[in-house]
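Give me the fold.
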Amino acid sequence: MNLEKYLQVSQEVREALAAGKPVVALESTIISHGMPYPQNVETALNVERIIREEGAVPATIAIIGGKMVVGCSREQIEYLGRKGLEVTKASRRDLPVLLSRGEDGATTVTTTMIAASLAGVRVFATGGIGGVHRGAETTMDISADLEELAETQVLVVCAGAKSILDLGLTLEYLETKGVPVIGYRTKELPAFYTTRSGFAVDYRLDTPEEIANAFRVKLACGLRGGMLVTNPIPEQYAMDYDYINENINAAIEECNRLGIKGKQTTPYLLDKIQKLTGGESLKANIQLVYNNARLAAGIAKAL
C-alpha cells in the first residue's frame, strides 16, 4: 500500500529534510485538548516561532482528513484550535480507523513519534509524556507513550513525566524497555510543573551537542527505540512542589469519584488542576513547552 496516501509532509519540511536542515516535530493534542481557544492557537504558533528563531524548522503534526500531516499550516492549526475537544485524541490504536475513515485526530506523543519517524524527523518537543498512572498495579493504566519510546527511533524533549502520574513506576517501566532517560543539566527527574520529583534520571548531559552525540550513537548501533530528554521548567515559572501536589491529589480524588478512566483521564486532570490553581498551572505549562522547543531546536541543529 502506498504510504503517501496517508502521509502528507509539507513542502517546507520536505525541503528542510532533503537539505539536511534541523527539523523539530510538535504534537497537536496540546492544541485541541491542552488549553482553550484562542490561547491554544497562540501557544502553538509561538512554539513554531521560537523554533524558527533558534534556527530549526517546526513540523506540527496532526491527522487531518485521513492524512498524517507533518508540518501543519497556520490555517490547519487554527482549524484544530477552533474545533478543540471535537477532534479525536489519537493514539496508536486510533490511527487505522481515523485514516481509513478520512477523519481528524490530534496526535499524542505516541502518534507524533510515529508520523515524525515515517517522515524522517528525529527530534520532537512536547510538554510532558504520559506514563504509569497512580494505582496502575490494579488498573493497568499505562500510557502508550512508554511503549512507543521503546519502539520508535525519535528523541523526545519534555519537562519530565506529568506529575499526575506515578513517577517511580514510570521510570521503572522505561528502564525495563531500555529507554535512556537523560536529564538536561540535572540529575533529578523534573515533574512537569516543578523541577523536583525525588527520582534520579539515568544520566545528566549538559549540552545539546552531548545529547545529539548520544542519540547519534544509538542510531548508528541500530538500537531500537527512542531517547527521553527531560528538561526542567525554568525556575522562575516553576510551581511550589507541595502546593501543586496537594492540588494534583485533590484532582485525582475527584477523577476517581466520578469514574473517569482511559484517555479522558489526563485532559480532565489537567483542566481540574488549572481551575484549582487559578490558571497558574496553565501558565507554567505554556512556559515549559517554550523551554522544551528551544532545547529541541538546539539538539536538532547539533544532530
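Residues 280-302 form the longest helix (23 residues).
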